[in-house]
Amino acid sequence: MGAKPETAGTPVLKMQGIDKAFAGNPVVRRVDFSCLAGEIHGLVGENGAGKSTLMKILAGIYQPDAGNVILNGREVAFRNYGEAREAGICVVYQELSLLPQMSVAENIFMGRWRRGRAGLVNWPEIRKEARLALEKVGLGDLDVNRLVSSLPMAVRQLIEVAKALLYEPRAVVFDEPTTTLTGSEAARLFGLMRELRNQGKGIIFISHRLKEILGVSDRITIMKDGERVLTGPAADFDENKLIYHMIGRDLTQIFPKKPVQLPDRIIFSCSAVAPGGGKIEFSVREGEVLGIGGLNGQGQVPFLESIFGLETGAEVSLHGGSRIRVKSPRDAMRVGISLIPEDRNAQSSFPILSIRNNIASASLARLSAAGFLKTWREKRDVRKIAEELQIRMASLSQEVRYLSGGNVQKTVFARWLLASPKVMVLLSPTSGIDVGTKQQIYRLIRELAAGGVAIIVLTGDMVELIGLCDRVLVMYGGRVSGELSGSELTEENIMRTSMGRTGGEGAA
Fold this sequence. Notes:
Elements (H helix, E strand, L loop, with lengths): L10 E12 L2 E12 L2 E7 L5 H8 L7 E6 L2 E3 L4 H7 L1 E4 L11 H5 L14 H13 L17 H13 L5 E5 L7 H16 L3 E5 L3 H7 L2 E6 L2 E7 L5 H9 L18 E8 L5 E7 L3 E5 L6 H8 L6 E5 L5 E3 L2 H6 L2 E4 L3 H5 L6 H6 L7 E2 L2 E2 L1 H14 L16 H14 L4 E5 L7 H16 L3 E5 L3 H7 L2 E6 L2 E7 L5 H8 L10
Parallel strand pairs: 3-8, 3-9, 6-7, 7-8, 13-20, 13-21, 16-19, 19-20
Antiparallel strand pairs: 1-2, 1-4, 4-5, 9-10, 11-12, 11-14, 14-15, 17-18, 21-22
């Protein structure tokens, strides 16, 4: 269990000269890092920069090849996360550890059951303590008997924090905690992080959302290629400076140039049942990147998934051909439609399979003859596409679960590129990945559009909508509330249209 809060400004933990390599590939090199009591320390860098590996060493999930960890002035060597947690280091991950089909109380006390004299689980005591734990994170009114599966993601995130606080941690690591949260939900979490800081705890905050890092952190450390580049007060940084030290380029260079004029040739058209009733009809021109915007929960996801044969399905036409009814993903893949879902870990990748298996999974028919997979062709084609996308890996045999988030997303892109798509529907394709990988994906999207692939992108990031897309359809209440392009494509107009203040015919 953790001790009393430390004096503000005293180092809660130090990591000195940390080295770590996997299969001979160094991922952390001679890194020094510290977190003070009573501070929020932002940690940023590209995917593969070594941030998550460094934190896993701190949490005892990995052991360092060299260097040491000092907690409250004492050198420690954790063999697993359980030891680190008992010593006062807790981690709240982007992928939550909660079990959906169990209750809130059961999740909070999983592995720490309160037992009575006969050794039986003391459920009244567990429920009582669970309520007290939830009060600390502002969820005092939540029914501790509810199944976690019935709760929104923001509430689950706070339950994860409540679970961590049971251990009275000296330091709490928040690893990409806001990826699935709305702006107001993230603000609530930030308020809790500040409360923990004010109690004298050391908070380490990892995020690719640089505005959040700048708005919440007291100090910031930048990592690149496994090394610490710079540490300083948050007030000394802005987005441009962070990006420059992360990837060596300025913010203005992130998005590729848009074509000055697009051809009038329509390469894809679609008619789908709108979540709000009626139909949504739209088309994509050759070379165009079409954006889908609006506030979260306005029907964008089911509408776009229908293009891939999910939900109600849709009618589509390619290059002015006859209308085809897409009733299933099999139908969609047969005509060249691909979908990259929002949750790459749960919906897009096979974590325990190799990179090679993941990339080849949508092209097995093409890579086979007489029902047998031609492994030489599979290896050749997969290696080629992996090299083109610059996937950072030890080998093609490496399991996808050991890749960084950005490299997992690259394997998903590689899978569909190997299948030679005609239409790509991308749902939040850069969520939770670093700026450098985002730039690679932006460039890839633009190259695919220029090469004749119809690109449809859903993103809640207005800067991304404006910088990447040629035209944006904004949805409100399950319908298209407006279409924006050219000089009309501004943050103010997107927000106004997102709130339904602009009329729309539901067609584009």
